[in-house]
Amino acid sequence: MQSTSRQFLIGGTLMLLPIVSFADEAQDKDAKDLSQVGIEGLMNMEVTTASKKSQSLFDVAAAMSVITQEDIRRSGVRTIPDALRMVPGIEVQQLTSDRWKISARGFELEYADKLLVLIDGRSVYEPDFAGVYWDAQDMVLDNVDRIEVIRGPGGSLWGANAVNGVINIITKSAKDTLGASLKSGAGSLDRTVQEGRYGTKFGKDGFLRVSGKYRLGASTKNGFGLGNNDDWHTSLFDFRADWGNETSGKFMTQGGVYSGKLGRTALGVSLSPPFSTLTPETQSVGHSFLLGKWDLPATKNASTSVQVYYDHAVRNQLEARGTRDTYDIDISRRQTPNDRNSLVYGFGYRQNRSDDFGITITYDPVRTFTRNFSGYLQDEIKLNSKDKLAVGIKAEHNDFTGMELQPSVRLSHTISPSQMTWAAISRAVRTPNASDLNLIADTAAFPTDLGIPGVVRLVKGNIQSEELLAYEAGYRLRKDDKFALDASAFYNVYRNLRASVAGVPFLENLPTPHLVMPIQYTNGLSAQTAGIEIDTKYQAGPAWKLGLFYRYQAPRYRFEPGAMSDNQNDVDSISHHVIGFSSAYQPTKSLLANLQLFYYDHLPDSGATDPRKIASNWRLDANFIWTAKPGLEFTLNFQNMLMPRRVETNLDGFTIPSAIPRSVYAGVSYKF
Asked: Is 576 exposed, middle or buried (0-12, 13-18, 19+ CB in 10 A)?
């Protein structure tokens, strides 16, 4: 039956390709021909995340990828995590119907603590768990201009926690989203997605955009075929306004409100056999933010920008209920004092206040108040007509470990107008958080020879910052407007990674007599990872674009005497080999067929998740777009076409992973 279904889906996909060529020639005014989105245009795209100033992607002395709005549209993805599958070096694993594990260059888990994620420069990195709640980063994807991804350390500019990568989601200016847009869709996994957007002009040079979205998701089953209680629904509203000009300065403000109910099955601890419980729960989540940015009038050789934001989050779940408030200000200046030097420097202050009320876990203290002061300086020096040297450092003071210095040195060499190479050495740190230092939780239970149960209890930790020393090198090639190659290699040396150490057991009488085996977080693990990332793009013809990437990573790690794994720093938790292939074919101006095929090597140590284990597997996604007339577009999307269901990750903390099913989704959008 499985083989028959697979053959039907693949055959149906291939049959659609010739059929679509007879469709109407109409085209959405906002859609682009594949011939209009050339390889040369992509490599010359202006990006800002790598150096906090505008520069061509081809000239960036770092491993960098860009997901454009056209990439998002063609692929038919409905979430940021699914879009990130297109990036070599970014590991994406879907944990449940609404939860994700995303990391760069290893250390895969739901709260990946070595990957910094930004939206228009606003950090969405959670200070309590040192990770990202990806469900809360939902947005109207048509508002996204591009996603810039740094694969590798970015600490010298972005600070602590930008250890293995930086993801910056950049939205469109309100000026570029005038008019109204409605989008509606339904499917087997995303039961319904409803979106609306309206953009208008105000005053002489002001523009405003408001948008909203509602999503309802279906529940899935776990690897054992049992219901996983992970149905969910979310809603959001946001706005953005842009006004001003070069003379008076440019202003931007944006804000949003998000709320939702998220289901899951949580793994709990019991003092009676079988010593664990599976508990369905529904989390309530909320999030709001307000951001303002002012680009001061630029002079001939300098420009300054000021950004301020406030962020508020609420999350009530089985383990704990908490709120977080963040205030942040950043002042950045770009200056070219002479023909050889290009400076970027700035200052920042961030304040966090968190209130975490434990239910099955405990925080001591319940309330934490932390401050972070930072300053950075980077100088790009033009050595000659072909060589550039970028030297930078960020000094950052936090309330846990004090002052942290994160320097980097990057050298680039232009071989020819179509070839360049680069090399870099960087230091980055991951600073401790409230969960590292203040968390108390029973993580497992077991029978003992004493005739009473025992529990493993995590007690308050005592750790310092984790450190990375990264060595990187890369090569880029662009051949006319037909072919592009981006290759990078890295060798990462980690020190003082978080691990666990056992304490002295003791007896506890309540709620029933039991033995407590305490463990404590400590810096007891070192690791080395080496890998390569190769990304190629080829314009096979005016109507056909191909892409192919390959990633390989080999980890090694070593524990200090007495230290053991805490599952947080498992560098071997990702597929060692990953291959991605994409094909976008546009037989007419109104029809587009996009295929994405991925190969994932097996996941180590996955037996606790699925009785079939997580073996090597393939994933095939397909998206078909028909533009019936300008402004009216129909979409048909298939995901996970090769398997009825697939477990993408192993057990993570207290959450039982889902077997993500094959799914279909149909949508329509109208712009006017």
From this structure: middle
pLDDT surpasses 50 at 563:
yes
Do 113 and 434 contact (CB within 8 A), yes or no? no
Handedness of CA 442, 604, 89, 542 (dihedral sign): negative
Task: Answer positive or negative: Cα dihedral of 104, 484, 586, 70.
Answer: positive
Residue of 373, 380, 414, 426 whose CA lies nearest to 396? 373
Distance CA 408, CA 344 (A): 14
pLDDT for res 327: 96
d(CA 471, CA 379): 20
More confident residue, 36 or 18: 36
How far is it, in rounded angstroms, from Cα 240 to Cα 206? 11
What's the CA gap between 1 and 640, in Å, rounded?
Answer: 16
SS (H, E, C) 353-416: EEEEEECCEEECCCEEEEEEEEEEEEEEEECCCCEEEEEEEEEEEECCCEEEEEEEEEEEEEEE
What is the tens place of the pLDDT at every residue in 121-141? 999 988 877 788 898 899 999
DSSP letter string over 447-508? E-TTSSEEEEEEE------EEEEEEEEEEEEEETTTEEEEEEEEEEEEEEEEEEEE---EEE
CA 527 to chain centre: 23
pTM of the model: 0.92
Q: What is the CA radius of gyration of the chain?
A: 25
C-beta separation of 343 from 336 below 8 A? yes
Residue range 387-407: mean pLDDT, rounded: 95
Looking at residue 570, what is its pLDDT?
A: 64
* Residue 620 bridge partners (DSSP): 597
Distance CA 658, CA 616 (A): 17
Q: What is the mean pLDDT of residues 223-233?
A: 89
